[in-house]
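Sample intake — Protein delta homolog 2
Collected from: Physeter macrocephalus
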Amino acid sequence: MRPCANGATCLDGINRFSCLCPEGFAGRFCTINLDDCASRPCQRGARCRDRVHDFDCLCPSGYGGKTCELVLPIPDPATIADIPPGPTSAVVVPATGPVPHSGGAGLLRISVKEVVRRQEARLGESSLVAVVLFGAVTATLVLSTVLLTLRAWRRGVCPPGPCCYPAPHYAPARQDQECQVSMLSAGLPLPPDLPPEPGKTTAL
């Protein structure tokens, strides 16, 4: 059992114990976080935010530092130019000294993110148009290929004639008659008549 919290050291005694609290905590079990903002360390009317054995100051615009004791230099308007939307969307402005993080420093980041999002939207529209055009061209090529294949297949199956097209299975005699007629019209000689076999007579 560890009764001491937040990494405190437990000191065992006779029928009792005590907790040696680290910096920033107090109480019998070291569960109370000491308020580091109680001494009001932030200047310039900044808001103090308590942490574990530390604090942060939310400095107003134009001030910086741990306790907002630094006055940030105002950038020269002549060095700041409007950036049109293009391939390059971020510009690094050289600073004269170390500038701590403050509330006013996030405005440039917001504008850069907006420019990047606009460029991404433009790229998405152009890629969508390209995909649609590519799909239309592909569909046209496939359709023309199928039509040309069907046309060549119909022309190259067999020459036109009555004997080329298959007849239905229920009319074989009609197909034979048509083929015989086509052979007679073409001038092909017919086979000679065979003599009747002996012992057979033809009835009139």
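Post-analysis note: The helical segments are 106-156, 172-185.
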